[in-house]
Amino acid sequence: MNFKKWFKISLSWALGFVMLFAAVDPALSMEKIDIDRFISPETCQGCHDKIFEQWENSMHNLSHKDPVYLRTAQFLRKGLINEGEIKEAESCVKCHTPVGVVTGFPEKLSDDLSKTPEIATQGIQCDYCHSAVTIKQMYNNGLVLKPGQGEDEPGIKYGPFDDPIPDFHEAQYSKMHTESKICGTCHDVKHLAFGTNLETTYTEWKNSPYNSKDPEKKIECQGCHMYQRPGIPSTGSTPRPENPGSATDYSDERPHLFTHYFVGANSSVPGSFEARDKGRMAIERLQNAATLFVDTSLIKQKKINITVANTGAGHSIPTGVGDLRQVWLEITIQDKASKIIFQTGALNDKHELSRDAVIFRTVFGDEKGNEVINIAKAKQVLKDNRIKAKQSVIEIIDLPLVPRKDAMIIVRLLYRGMPRKILNMIPGKPFEPLPIIEMAKVQKQI
Ligand code: HEC
Ligand code: HEC
Ligand code: HEC
Ligand code: HEC
Ligand code: HEC
């Protein structure tokens, strides 16, 4: 064997070894992690009881059990035959049941979910976020984990303190945990086969003034969502005071303890799991997200101008599943005797919203440009008129008549989690009507 050939063979062996080791280290590859390595949230509760109570029955804790998600997902999966559509429709568990996916079951939505191990049913949990070491991709849950070996050897928990004095587990400062990125990897969703941007909360934030180069002005996701507590919504338009306290009963006090309520806009699902405090906090958040202005100077020309400003959210309103969320204007004109003489944006007796309502949302389409309600079939974004962070939109409303003097105009900005029409299509026990939250209201005498 000549030297060149020997050198080539040795080199390929060396490369092979390097790749083998990379594949063996679960932190570097996507190798399945043994489920016993994850520690249950109840164990963390033993010391971090206040943080546990905040997280318990939050939408992160409920992401797998949430009946609105689960029944919608199973409904959207039905009857699909296109391979790309099936791939997407099966992938929901990746973010909604993340401990299950990284430990091997469930791998897809159509697996028998009743066999999901107890710990995986607890959604996005303590040991999932606090074992994250790096990010593989900034969408579709690209978190790379390095959990310990279970309770006997809990390993390192990564967090915001650079001087932790833990017991039980080791602890280490992680810059990633202080940045929007750790949230963004799940809060940006791309269609697995078609690449369509299905959810873009992180990208919306990244392109917003909240992602400022000036550290004084920069507000990460945590800066709003992990400062909220009852009575303190912590939005872009309300104070976000620090929350001094200690991580355990016996630890030293810290200037700020990040809260773990993870409250967005969903008030009904936490409410139905006995977490009414989180439901109320979602309402407080929505009520401090947007501002309405009503200009009636053109009323003689049968027009009113309504401005909706996103003053409180670090992303579009609505964000997340922007195709499902309904944020719309209800406009009512009453005469002197409070009789309604004009109205748009009201619900019919089936709780459905009329098509002529001014509604802020995303609309997905197939390749031909026809609207689709199933995200698995979404090949393009047909429309996105949601209100971007720190921006406003003006809607000019045409009236059928010139209201008389003394008429009253009432404009409300309303929020609902999902269209009634879609909930009505889902087989099984009918859903309770979802609550309608008044985000803002202006009442004006003409
Ligand atoms: C036996 C008590 C105990 C248990 C159980 C426990 N912790 Fe801790 N943990 C502590 C103490 C003490 C600290 C340090 C607090 C400080 O320095 O202010 C801490 C700190 C932390 C930190 C901050 C680390 C940093 O550097 O920022 C994280 C994150 C954390 N724990 C997560 C967890 C998770 C997740 C679990 C469950 C898997 C858990 N802890 C279970 C006692 C415990
Ligand atoms: C969605 C991910 C996520 C989940 C789930 C989560 N945490 Fe955290 N946690 C964070 C982040 C991010 C921070 C730090 C925020 C920052 O520095 O901006 C944090 C901070 C902490 C800290 C430091 C003290 C504090 O509050 O500031 C402790 C301790 C902690 N978490 C424990 C827990 C426990 C216990 C649970 C489960 C009951 C849990 N976490 C669930 C993301 C998470
Ligand atoms: C400046 C404060 C602020 C920042 C920063 C912020 N949010 Fe929000 N967030 C809000 C407000 C206010 C709402 C309620 C209005 C709404 O739904 O858009 C909200 C709602 C949400 C919702 C519920 C969406 C819906 O409409 O149903 C999610 C999910 C969310 N935020 C995630 C994030 C993530 C992830 C980040 C970081 C990439 C982030 N937020 C940054 C203020 C903020
Ligand atoms: C492992 C994936 C994952 C990570 C990481 C993650 N989230 Fe979430 N988050 C979800 C999922 C999935 C839901 C929706 C659960 C549902 O509605 O069924 C959610 C829900 C939420 C909600 C509630 C939305 C509502 O409509 O009320 C907020 C707020 C939120 N996340 C903020 C954050 C913040 C802030 C971070 C970073 C500290 C973060 N998330 C990290 C997956 C994740
Ligand atoms: C990359 C992560 C990710 C994947 C994959 C994912 N989701 Fe979600 N999902 C989220 C996040 C984050 C939210 C919270 C956004 C919000 O509140 O608007 C959410 C919220 C939802 C909600 C709203 C639930 C409620 O209670 O209002 C539904 C419905 C939903 N997802 C359906 C699905 C379906 C169906 C799939 C699979 C086709 C899927 N999701 C896949 C991250 C994901």
Structure description:
By secondary structure, the chain is of the alpha+beta class. It has helices at residues 3-24, 41-45, 49-55, 67-77, 83-90, 93-96, 98-103, 126-129, 181-184, 201-206, 221-225, 268-272, 276-286, 420-425; strands at 132-135, 143-145, 156-159, 170-173, 188-190, 197-200, 290-295, 303-310, 326-334, 340-344, 359-360, 362-365, 371-372, 380-384, 392-398, 408-416, 437-445. It folds into 2 domains: 24-284, no CATH class; 289-445, no CATH class. It is built from 14 helices and 17 strands. Strands 9, 10, 11, 16 and 17 form a 5-stranded antiparallel beta sheet that branches. It has a 3-stranded antiparallel beta sheet with strand order 7-8-15, with no helix packed on it. It has a 3-stranded antiparallel beta sheet with strand order 13-12-14, with no helix packed on it. Strand 5 and strand 6 (197-200) form a beta hairpin. It starts with a helix and ends with a strand. One heme C (HEC) binds at residues 39, 43-44, 46-48, 126-127, 130, 157, 159-161, 164-169, 171-173, 247-248, 251-252, 254. The site of one heme C has 27 residues, from helix 2, helix 8, strand 3 and strand 4.
